[in-house]
Amino acid sequence: QVQLVESGGGLVxxxxxxxxxxxxxxxYFKRYAMGWFRQAPGKEREFVSVITWVGxxxxxADFVKGRFTASRDIDKNTLYxxxxxxxxxxxxxxxxxxxxEYTGWPPANYEYIGQxxxxxxxx
Length: 123
Prior knowledge:
mainly beta
C-alpha cells in the first residue's frame, strides 16, 4: 500500500499561479506513471495530466492548453503540477494518483489516489 498526500492548493485570483505537490509514502513503491485529476462541485472527476515516473513523458488534457505542467522529482519522491494563468473554471479539488503498470498510453487505470487539495480561483 502507498499513501499519497497532496498540498499546495489555495485561493488565487484569475491569471495567478499555483504549484501543487504530491508526496508518496513509500519511496521505492513501483509505479509506471503518476497523474493529476480534478473534480469540480457537481461534476465528475476528470483527467488533467500524467507523467511517466522514470522517463518523464507527459500527456495533458486538451483544456490544459500549455497552462499546466506536470513534473516529478524522483529523489524527493514527489509529483508536481505547475498551474499558470488560472481561470475560475479551474476551481476544483485536485487529486494525484498512481498507475502501477503499463497498460497503454496514456494510462487508463490508476490504482491509488490521494485525498485531494482544494484550488479556488476567484474572478
